[in-house]
Model the fold of this input.
Amino acid sequence: PNLLVNGSSGIAVGMATNIPPHNLTEIVNATIEVVKNPKAGLIEILKYVQGPDFPTGGFLYGRAGIAQAYKTGRGRFMMRAKAAIENLTKEKQAIIVTEIPYQVNKSKLIERIAELVTEKVIDDIGDVRDESDRDGMRIVIELKRGAQPEIILNQLHKHTQMQESFSMILLAVLNGQPKELSLDAAIRAFIDHRIDVVQRRTVYLLRKAREREHILEGYKIALDNLDTVIRIIRAS
Done:
């Protein structure tokens, strides 16, 4: 189900869609459950699908709205960066960011933190540097001596994109009409689509096989009457 696995976003006239990406295994397992048990509802599906799965990582802050969003097709998720506090020396600490919210640009995030330091909105940051490499992301926010990391982290959540919201609108074109779908309706639409694809493919392959059969039947008749065929060809 690519629509759910990859997600999608777009704006049209008077309507928009914003579908978050999901975990492939979770969605496939939920689809298998609906195939096996056509009466399965949203409660059964949510046993497999825990929520959106963003490729940049991070945390979903609060899970209360997930079930409601999947029920109605609309909802709002709060995302937070994954940050840890490390001791650089006995007196100095740093906030290490290893994952950021979905669709947040890392360079712009670092620029924003630097701006807050320059504008003295946040005073206790000494240095910000990007130590990301092929092993993964690592943004180091070095704190001044005596700074309280938890307070700085709360300020960063408030003033930067280290905390960002994602508004889900699960709107898709179904049978030629745009429609807001619940999660179970989206999975059922995919199953119906797959059944349609398999039926069309089978009908196509059957037609091709029958056309081939017609030719082979002709060859068979020709082989059974080979001398007559050769004589006709030589005489023509």
